[in-house]
Structures are given as C-alpha cells and as structure tokens.
C-alpha cells in the first residue's frame, strides 16, 4: 500500500467556467464578487473530482491567471510601476498591463507550452507579503475535503528566484524571500495543514543544480519552522542534483519517473536511485502516472516500479503524476465522438486520478499501455534518414534575398491572426452543427478575409495577412487536415490566463492529404496588389503543441510533420505566394532542461524546420516567428534555421533578444515586436518610435533599415478590432516617421512595396463583403 496524492490539476473547470468568468469580468459584465465566487466553484469542482477518485492528499490547485503571478502578488514583490494599484486591479495589471505600466514579461514554464509571468526583482526589493488568498483556499479546501486531505501548494523559493528577471545572485534573492516563506509556513501550520507542497521544478535544470548552496540554506531554515514540507521536483530527472536534493530536510520528495513526452530514453530517475540509494527518513513521491501524456499508463509497469523502489529502501511511498495534471484535458468521457476503440487507450486528468488511486491501493491494471494496436503506424527512425539536400535551400541568403520582394525602410506587417470575433466563432459553430453547409461557410469566411484585407490596405500596411478567421488554433487547424492526428471536442488545456488550446493527439503516421491554406491565400491575394503572406505552423511547434505518440521518437514524428508541411509550402508557392511564414514559437519549449541534451534536440528540431522550408525557391521569402521563450542562449540554431525573416516577441523583454542577435552576428531580416498583444492598452506613436529607435541603438542590421520589419509581438486573435485598428494605425505611423528620416517624405501609400505575381485585385463587393 502507498499514499495517493496529487501535485496539481486543471484549473479550467470541466466546461471552461474559469475562462468564461475571467473574460466576463474583464469586459465589465460581472463584478469582483462574481469572479471570486466563480473561481471558488471551479476550485471545488476540481477538488471533488480528486476526492471522488479516492485520492488521499489533494493539492489545492487554483489560480485566476498563473501560479507564478500568484506568488508575486502573495509575496508583495510587484514592480514599482504598479505601486498605485492594489487588489485584483494590481494582479491583472501585472498580467495584462495598464496605462503607463507595461505587464510583466511572459515566458514558457520550463519545456511546456504553459506561459508564466516573469517576476521582476530589482536590487533593494522588499517583500510585503499578503497570504490571505492562500489561507482562504486552504480554509475552503478543509471545509470540503477535511483537514487531513487538503494540502496547500505553491511555487518554492528557489524556483521563484530562478524564474525571475533579476541581476542579483540567486543566494541573495532566496535569502530575501525566506522570511516571507517561513511566515507562510507558520500560518499554514497554525490552521492545520497536514503538509505543504513547495514546487521546485527548477531543481531539475542546470541552474537549479548550480543553486545547491542556496537551496540547502533555504530548506534548512524552512524546516526549522516545523511545518511538514512536501518538496515537488518534477519535469525531468534531477541528474547531478539528486544526491544533495534527496538529503534536504523535508518530509516528502516527489520525483518525475516519466520524463519528456515522446522520449524513448530509459527511466533516468530510477537509475539515480539505483546508483545513489534513497534516504529512509523520507516519503518518496513516485511520479509514474504520466502527467504530460494523454495515453493511458501501463499500470503493470508502474506496479513493478513501485516494487523495485521498495527493494531499494523506499519503504514510504506515495503515487502521483509525473508533473501537474494541469497540462492535460479534464475528462475523456466528455469525448463521445472519438474514433471507435481509441477512447479506452486514452487517459485525461480524471482518468489519471483513477490510475493514481489504483496504484496506491495495489490494484494497478496490468497491461493498460496506451499507444498500441491499430492507432500507430510502422514508421521508425531508420525510415527518416533523408538526403541532406532536402534540408538546404538552393541558394544562400544573400543570393536569394535579391530575388525576393523588396520593401522600403521599416516595412510593416502583422504576425498572422486578427480578432476572432463572436461572429467568426458563430460561423464555425454553425458549420459544425450543420446549420450552414461548407460552401456557405466559405463564402462567409471570405467576407471576413475581405474585411481584414480592406482594413490593412486602409492602414497602409506593406505585407498583408488574410487574418486566419477559419482557424481555431495554430496546431489544430493543420492537424485536422493531416492523416494520423485525432482531435477532441472538449480537450481544453490552459496556455495562460483565459487562453486555452485543444492539443491534437498524434495517433498514427502523419502525412499530407490535400492543400490546407491555398484557398484562403488565393481569396486574399485576389483582393489586393500588395503581397499576402502564406501562413503555416511549423513542424516542431505542431509536435510540441500536440500529445505525441509514445512508441516513436519525437525526431521521427517531427520529420513526418515536416514532410507533410513541405508539400503545403510547395502548394502555396505554386499558387503564386511569394512570402511564406512558417511559425515556430514552440522551438525552445521542447529544449531539454539540461544543457548536455540540447545538441541532440536542436539538431533534429532545426532540421525539421529546414526540411519543411527548403523546398521554397530562392525568390520565395521564408519568414518564421518565435515568441514567449528565452531564446538568447540558442542563437546559432536560430540562425541555422536559415529563414529570410525572423519575427520575435519583444515588447516585454527589453530588447534582450535583439541585442543577442546583434552580438551573434545575425544578418537576415528581423521583425522585433513593437507592442504587447496580450495587453488591451493601445500604444502611442511616440512610444512606438522610441521603441524602434532602441532597435537601431543595438546595432542590429546597421545601415539596412529595409531589413528591419515593424510588427506586433504576436498574433492578434485575442484582441478586439477596437484595440487592433488604432494600435496598427499607430504602428504604421511610427514606421513612416522613421522611414521619412531615411528616405524622405513618402510619395504615396505603399511606397516601395514590390509587385507580386498574384492576380489583379478585385473589389470587396466581388468577394461578397458588401
């Protein structure tokens, strides 16, 4: 027998109640008490699901936006620019920005697609803690579950420091945080918490391993409080940090026994325990139920693992997930439309709870392996050995750039998507329900495309996009048109705040079926003489934003996707597209947590992008987009992608990547984001001009202003037209102001924009818009 516990659960609600409540509050339709009550109900639904499954120690997960932001607020370490705010106004301003107070930077949590808000800790920062929200959650959890079952959870001090933006030494940051963490432990102990989960996933990284002195000092001080600590160190094996982390003075230590999704490596955590032993005074949390995979776990293999751990000296065991279950959809029983025979092989968060409880009770179901039977193909890595020529463009960058469309200084564009209005969402729902047929749907979508093209022409943007009104999600749109991928109706996973995605499930070999974007491109390009970008999601991003197979390496799956998308690039090019954007925002999030494993991943990830895009002719401009990750330490692989234009998220990160690219000798075209698309604040022209001048000050592309693109941080689907139009208008005005300094006064709209090979423009009336 073992204890069953959780270390996190979806914070969305089974029917996305959290999203509805949050967006209603932001629109002013509901009050703050309404929001608080709605989120309390979401919390309690999740806790009841865990209790009903038989879990004994239930982590009290829950957040209005992000768990790292929760600790910024609770510790009282908001940056000074927010000092005039308090309460939820302060909380959401840090997440979304406010006038004269830009939001906190946003980055990916370790190697996941979950976005967290980056704490800013300046020299002299002084915590002013307020733990009332954490204490209230515990009080509610105890009332529902009982005192012995309700376990508070939060980000630990070492991880909080390592996730922060700061120039201070890690030891100094942790030391300043410790009195507040100790105060919190005392308060939780006083109201009867059976233990407290402190999540320290950063200990599995190289930086975490190097923070040994800070971590040891921190946990010695926190242990002295006397409140039992459950340290959660997941998302990878601990590697060289294992010997000293295992000796920290905590009651329980939970480790990840599953590793990276789609990886085929041996169980590294088990090997560490075999080599170093396990301290007899600690409970070992066995993260053997895969919290990052929707495939059902082999409970027989988990049972064998638990038995071996007992022989290695781990007499006190707890069964849990490998990482927080927040990365999974809620419940597979909500998916009646899955292909016959697939559902029994799947396990979402609720099903993972059942596996945890069964394994803890010694009743694991033998042989319940996930990706097997008729749902996988027969391709193996050996079949992915392709000729090197397939990965290389026909000419080098300088030779091909002269053949590509030419633009004036500071050319303007957007990243791809435009607002997904209620009208657009209603069209998709009507198609899905059968209320309208596909020809009618496409005609109405074409009206949305015409609207987007007309607005961009009116704003005098140089390179246009069709707006992506037909797309629900970057990965889903393509996966639904490829073979080998399966989709859910309600399999939502939180990406950040109220932004949810439905990751595809890779259930077989992936292959191209038909052109996926050509029709919409041709509709858009027929409406304008200006160039319209073809818009694709890259193979690495589709892979990292999907639930991969467990029987095939990620490299092989990435190459399958690349070969399929390669055919789409060729199809766009054949349709007259001169600019193809292949987005790879998830390139870095698949990066292993330990530097020693980087080269292997980056080699096949960059190759997958090149395999996808090398089919483009020298005269076709290839663009890619990267966002919301720390890319500064992988400059060479980014340059090796050999894109003609790189657009990046930048407005929250202080031009750090622009400077890194300049230092790395980057010479291709670059589009650093000039304003934050996740904030409702409309940027002023003067602020945008100043931002553009900061790019020039870095020395990037010195003397080549025609290579410095002006664009937002990311896509605009989450914004409203009332925000998008003035923001883009100001962006164009800023670009034209600097363009006039370089080239003299403009001679008219679209000055310098190259002609395209597309058909002549037709009126919006001809497109059915009017």
Ends: how far apart? 69 Å
Low-confidence segments? 370-380, 747-770
- Strand fraction equals 5-15%
Number of domains: 2
Q: What is the overall shape?
A: globular
Q: Total number of β-strand segments?
A: 20
Strand order of the largest sheet: 1-11-10-9-8-7-6
DSSP helix count? 25
- Give a quick account of the main beta sheet: strands, pairing sense, barrel closure: 7 strands, parallel
Q: What is the CATH topology descriptor of the largest domain?
A: TIM Barrel
Fraction in helix: 25-40%
Mean pLDDT: 91
CATH domain class of the largest domain: Alpha Beta
Keywords: Amino-acid biosynthesis, Metal-binding, Methionine biosynthesis, Methyltransferase, Transferase, Zinc
Catalytic activity: 5-methyltetrahydropteroyltri-L-glutamate + L-homocysteine = tetrahydropteroyltri-L-glutamate + L-methionine
EC number: 2.1.1.14
Organism: Monoraphidium neglectum
SSE inventory with pairings:
Layout: E1 3-4, H1 17-26, H2 32-52, E2 58-59, H3 67-75, H4 87-96, E3 106-108, E4 115-117, H5 132-145, E5 150-151, E6 153-155, H6 157-162, H7 170-190, E7 196-199, H8 206-210, H9 212-223, E8 229-233, H10 242-245, E9 252-256, H11 268-276, E10 283-289, H12 299-311, E11 317-321, H13 349-360, H14 397-401, H15 422-433, H16 438-459, H17 474-479, E12 483-486, E13 493-496, E14 499-501, E15 505-511, H18 518-525, E16 534-537, H19 539-544, H20 554-574, E17 579-583, H21 598-613, E18 621-626, H22 635-640, E19 645-648, H23 656-663, E20 669-672, H24 685-697, H25 721-743
Parallel strand pairs: 1-11, 2-5, 6-7, 7-8, 8-9, 9-10, 10-11, 16-17, 17-18, 18-19, 19-20
Antiparallel strand pairs: 3-4, 12-15, 13-14
Helix pairs in contact: 1-2, 2-5, 7-9, 15-16, 20-21, 24-25
